[in-house]
Amino acid sequence: MNTQLPAGFSDLEQFAQWVLPTSTERNRKRRTGSMDEINAFYNAMLPRMEEILAYLDQFSLQEMPQDVRRLMFLSLSLAEVTIAVELFHEPKVTGGCDPERFVVVRELNP
Amino acid sequence: MKTVMANRRWIKENPDLDTGPVPTETCTSPQLFELERERIFRKSWLNMGREDDLPEPGNYVVRDLAVANTSVLLVRGKDRKVRAFHNICVHRGNRLVDGEKGLCKGRFVCRFHSWAYDTAGQLTWVSDEANFYDIDKGALGLKPIAADLWEGFIFINLDPHPTETLAQYMAGMVQQIHGYPFDQQRLMCRYRVEERANWKVMLDAQNEVYHLPFLHITYPDFCPLNEQKFSRIQNFARFGRHTVYSVELNPDHKMTPVEEIAVNANPRGGEVHPSMIGWFDFYTVFPNFCMLFLAGTYVTYNIWPIAVDRSVWEVSLYQPATDKPSERFAQEYIRCRFRDLLQEDASNHEAIQASLNSGALTHFQLQDEEIQIRHFHKEVRRHIFGEENSASAIANNHDTVELRLK
Fold first, then answer.
1. Using one digit for the tens of pLDDT, what is the confidence trace for B225-262?
2. Most C-beta atoms within 10 A of its C-beta, which of A24, B45, B199, B312?
3. Any alpha helices (H) in B191-324, and if so which ranges?
4. For residue A103, is it within any domain?
5. Which chain B residue shows the shortest CA-CA distance from A91?
6. List of chain A residues whose C-beta atoms are within 8 Å of the C-beta of residue B343
7. Is-contact B250 B263, C-beta < 8 A?
8. A4 in a domain, yes or no?
């Protein structure tokens, strides 16, 4: 399996642990991480998002090479952690229920 | 829609909804829950998802409805018609189909004695048929449940003789939503959340925006607030048993950095379809189905009672079909934010139920922004107690209730 991100995004390789194919995994990763870890990921991704989305848009969701798909999952992890950084200022939903109780019974992937 | 932040006094147009406190007893009484089971859930049209859940002939879905003590088999026949049956073999009563969904390529076969049915519910095979006495396969077949479609949504009615057609049941709402591009939206995700709460506690908590600036860190300023920082709904309408309320998007809503990226990547996400009333429309279809239309997205809730203090919240999020990665990113952002918002609500539902179970609070106090809840509880009580008895029932007289149960 190709474990690389596309050329031009190799600096984000250090965040490879955020390349996760399902929302349940991305949400667990957010909740079990520290804010330092989450902030580091968010701060690295935020200034690159314009470039990342423009790059991804050269492909269709249905036909993505493996390395592009990895970049797609990485950006979906940003969508997941953003709320922790920008709104809750902690990994979990402040005052929320146990997120494991929101069982995903269907989802599009990616 | 022009935003009006003055006190609306919706009650003036709806004086029958009364201004008094609303009894809490239907959220805690096991006896009243039994009445709801018989008089609401066995008599009303119930949403079972969308037609797209059964795209091809032979596709089926099995839904176990604890509130009606039955399992429902939904199947699209060779003639493309969607039918509903009790998921039970007519020979000795075995559960016919296991599993949640699938494709029936030929027949549904009971594993007990191999009786078989086609996708129209006809009994097509009885093993050792000649050794039965006077059996008539044509007169048997799966036990049907009334089923019909409304704007692509599948509804069933467990009453063997429904008193209204689905079209009559939904009257008024047809004109309202007709034309919404449901066919361009596809199911992005569905959550199932089991909660220790009465189904109405869960529905009521969604059926107003008064709480938004207080409870939700995720969307404190989503809807316009007046000078005192209180919400004002911009529309409230009743369609028989059902209601809709609408709000506009707060023009001063402050976007976060990633929210701004997501909004820019999602031009269709801001589109308010002409069939919508406001920027956000919330329909409550009696008894347990809600449709939420936000610009570019719609969400449905099916809230299924299990017991008086236990329910399942099914949340389905629909967004425009896309192949474009940046749009998919934007949709994921909406999905995560919405899910987190609902998690803020879910812990609250259970806190309310636990408190109500104490019996300390006999009535809810409802303001004009919560008139939807007033309507909903009136409908619940009208169904439980009957038209003629609902006035005395609203007086919260337990003796009356017990008398009626005998």
1. 899 989 999 999 999 999 999 999 888 888 999 999 99
2. B199
3. 199-206, 212-215, 257-264
4. no
5. B340
6. 93, 96-97, 99, 102
7. no
8. no
Unique residue bearing structure tokens 């990113």: B329
Radius of gyration, CA atoms only, chain B:
23
Chain A positions with Cβ closer than 8 Å to B: 23, 27, 46, 49-50, 53-54, 56-57, 59-62, 64, 72, 75-76, 78-80, 82-83, 86-88, 93-97, 99, 101-108, 110
SS3 A40: helix
Domain containing A32 equals: 23-96
Check whether B302 has a pLDDT greater than 80: yes
Tallying the residues shown for chain A, one arrives at: 110
Q: What is the pTM of this model?
A: 0.93
Per the structure, how many domains does chain A have? Answer: 1
In a domain? residue A43: yes
Q: Please count the other Cβ atoms lying within 10 Å of the Cβ belonging to residue B365.
A: 9
How many Å lie between the alpha carbon of B341 and the closest alpha carbon of chain A?
8
Question: Mean pLDDT over residues B299-316, rounded?
Answer: 98
CB atoms < 10 A from the CB of B364, how many? 17
- A18, part of any domain: no
If we measure between CA atoms, which residue out of B222, B326, B214 comes closest to residue B279? B222
> B10, B8, B21, B372: which is closest to B211 by C-alpha?
B372
User: How many separate helices (H) and strands (E) can be counted in chain B?
Assistant: 10, 19
Task: Give me A50's structure tokens.
Answer: 């314009």
Token pair 């095979």 in the structure block, residue? B125
> Among A76, A25, A53, A56, which Cα is nearest to B331's?
A76
pLDDT of residue B223: 86
| Euclidean distance between CA atoms B218 and B222, whole angstroms | 9
Please indicate whether, in this complex, the C-beta atoms of B340 and A102 are within 8 angstroms of each other: no
Token pair, residue B180, equals 């919404």
Give the per-residue pLDDT at B118. 98
List of residues 6+ apart from B298 with CB closer than 8 A: B180, B185, B291, B292, B318
Cβ–Cβ below 8 Å for B329 and A82: no
